[in-house]
Amino acid sequence: MIGASALVRVRVRARPVSNGRLARGGFMELSYDPRSPYEVKLSETGPEAGEVVFARELLLQALAGQPAGEDLVRARLQQFDGAPHALLSLTVPGADGPLEFGLCDTTVARFLRDTVALVPPGEEWRHVDFTDTIAEILRDAA
């Protein structure tokens, strides 16, 4: 098992997208904890920061050129007007409806490279603590 010290975090520029156009944006954080090997988190910064959790596989597929996800969270490479190269377009749920962000694809690729080095795709199950998960399910069922 890999410990919490192996947490992967990266600060990524996140530009809001409105009507297919990029707006000025700030930064968000992508994080990965190998103890929850299927998940990545995208977090806002600041006092009222929000967070969305979704499958790491969505980012892997999108950066491989395959649009990924359905319903609430979707990811794909997209060329935006004024951007020198394609960005990772990530749509996530927001309080007033879906939010779309253009994320720097090279930063996301570096983040994914580091997560894959810790937990290769297809090996996630080896990092799930089934003992704690089963105990939690049994507690909830009681």
| Overall CATH architecture | Roll
Q: What is the quaternary state of this protein?
A: single chain
Instruction: Fill in the CATH topology.
Output: Transcriptional Co-activator pc4, Chain A
Write down the CATH class: Mainly Beta
CATH superfamily descriptor:
Sporulation-specific cell division protein SsgB
In helices, the fraction of residues equals 10-25%
Total beta strand runs: 9
Q: Give the strand content.
A: 35-45%
Describe the structure.
By secondary structure, this protein is of the alpha+beta class. The chain has a single domain, classed as Sporulation-specific cell division protein SsgB (Transcriptional Co-activator pc4, Chain A). The protein is built from three helices and nine strands; from the N terminus they run E-E-E-E-E-H-E-E-E-E-H-H. Helix 1 crosses helix 2. The longest helix has 14 residues.
Annotation keywords:
142 residues, alpha+beta, Transcriptional Co-activator pc4, Chain A, nine-stranded antiparallel sheet, 9 strands, 35% strand, globular
